[in-house]
Amino acid sequence: MKTSIRYMRKKRGMTLKELGAKTGITAAHLSLIERDKRDPSIQTLNKIARALEVDTEVFWWNTVEAPSGKKAEYDLVRKNERRIYHGVYNDKLIYEYVTSSSVYGPQGGETMEGYIAKVSPGGNTNPFAPTSHKSEELVYVIRGKMLCEIEDTDIEMEQGDSITIKSNMAHRFINNFEDEVEVLMIRSPYKNV
Fold first, then answer.
1. Residue span of the structural domain in which 89 resides
2. Within a domain: 60
3. Contact criterion met (CB below 8 Å) for 93 and 118
4. Is 58 domain-assigned?
5. Is the pTM of this model over 0.85?
């Protein structure tokens, strides 16, 4: 986690003091978190994520540098090698990554990110409110039904439906139905705007 916070902060050209001003957390405490000397609370991680304009989940990703600095021409992820991420806020959300890279990782300006999200009944992708990020997103419902909340609009989606969401639109996905929903989500490379 420490590498992700430091990486995201430095990628934005932000000092610890500047991040502290945006979060209300002292630079000294942020430094301890980045150096793995303190474990941040979920509330603290949410503040840091908002200040860095990223989803909180990026702090749990492992990023891997390409060997010898070479740029791979393809990204093969075998089914049994997928990264699994369990929701931080509840046990009703699982992400299974079908790409090895992240739009927020070392090649974030160049790569797409894809994952299969499984949301159990009563679950959602963000329990607090719809959020935006600096990537456009394509969402395809593989099975089940869900509610797509885009700012003030609710859209019911079912198997076979898809939606493309622009990067500036705050959104989240909610399963208020009886069965698990499974969706494929693909994000465009991170936009530095």
1. 69-187
2. no
3. yes
4. no
5. no
